Amino acid sequence: AQSVTQPDIHITVSEGASLELRCNYSYGATxxxxxxxxxxxxxxxxxxxxxxxxxxxxxxxxxxxxxxxSQSSFNLRKxxxxxxxxxxxxxxxxxxxxxxxxxxxxxxxxxxTVLP
Amino acid sequence: GAxxxxxxxxxxxxxxxSVKIECRSLDxxxxxxxxxxxxxxxxxxxxxxxxxxxKATYEQGVEKDKFLINHASLTLSTLTVTSAHPEDSSFYIxxxxxxxxxxxxxxxxxxxxxx
Lengths: 116, 115
Hints:
The structure holds two protein chains of two kinds.
Chain A: E1 3-5, E2 10-14, E3 19-21, E4 24-26, E5 32-38, E6 45-50, E7 56-58, E8 64-68, E9 73-78, E10 87-97, E11 100-106, E12 110-115
Parallel strand pairs in A: 2-12
Antiparallel strand pairs in A: 1-4, 3-9, 5-6, 5-10, 7-8, 8-9, 10-11, 10-12
Chain B: E1 4-7, E2 10-13, E3 19-25, E4 32-38, E5 44-51, E6 57-58, E7 67-73, E8 76-81, E9 90-97, E10 104-106, E11 110-114
Parallel strand pairs in B: 2-11
Antiparallel strand pairs in B: 1-3, 3-8, 4-5, 4-9, 5-6, 7-8, 9-10, 9-11
């Protein structure tokens, strides 16, 4: 069975500081990995995804993530955080079927607070 | 980009009534849609997989008679919470899988409050 662990429940950073959100996964085959962001009362917005190829993935809003198979990790990073980045972030792993993802398993989420 | 619309976005109902939530793919066909439930400050839990023209597949512990899912067309899946009780209050989110590309897109969610 697939699973996702986000060790940090809550992270606080100052505006302009760098950010790294951790994600570890467990999956028996090649994973399809995602990072989503959720603002309060809203649905999910896809930040980036990894299926194959270059292990450093660029996403929207200046985010990037690096897939490290040896560490079963897919950490999300941003060099300089803005106040508008305050939100809940979810890492997810999807099973592969016919080259595309089926249902996703989500981590417990990391709440990001940005101090002015 | 592709859009998945959920309606209503917010609904309040009395205990014992039934509520229907729609999930609609606006510019693509979705043979498969997924329904998730999210409690406050928690992650999304998959409830069921909705397949167009066939019965939904429910996750363990989800009551299929409580949460009725219908996927009658390639662009619409509905979740009906029957005889709702306060413990059914939650945020329900759907995702739709683009049949052509395999991409997954999420709706904006529907918040259900049962009084």
